[in-house]
Amino acid sequence: PIGGGTPVRLSPALGAGESIAPNFQLTPDGETLVFLSDLNVNDTFELLAVDVDDGTLTTLTPGVNLGAGASFQISPDGDTVVFRSNQNVGGNNPDENFELFAVAITGGTVTRITADLPDAGDVEDGFVISPDGNTVVYRADQTTDGVIELYVAPVTGGTGNSLRLNTALEM
Prior knowledge:
Layout: E1 20-26, E2 32-41, E3 44-51, E4 57-59, E5 71-74, E6 80-85, E7 99-104, E8 111-112, E9 128-129, E10 135-140, E11 149-154, E12 163-164
Antiparallel strand pairs: 1-2, 2-3, 3-4, 5-6, 6-7, 7-8, 9-10, 10-11, 11-12
């Protein structure tokens, strides 16, 4: 605590070989901490949320290894977590490209945000959720493999809902 006192551990005790990834975030209201960890299954990094006040732990992506390149952002209203992963999350990414997904901060169904990408296409790291929490802006080679462009898509997902923000780039 900033004012002094005894620190409180927010994660459960970890077993041998288990870890918490260095990227973690608090919701804007400070009530929930979201992090990546393999504390449920060794070497399977899931997205987890813990209530800062009572320690209740929720696995947001149960049994799904998000992979070493996973990253995430919490929406400004604190209700949704958008994450980037190259795993076949919910059967929605069989080609295992880096794509964007969303899940409620309380857990539930994972929604794929990005449209189909070329075989070697990926969403780049560094996406941003809009201030109203309704859309996400990201960089990807979504139209042409190897040509990174800007796109916007609704957080609710849906194939064909993304919009390229720049004009077509020449190769």
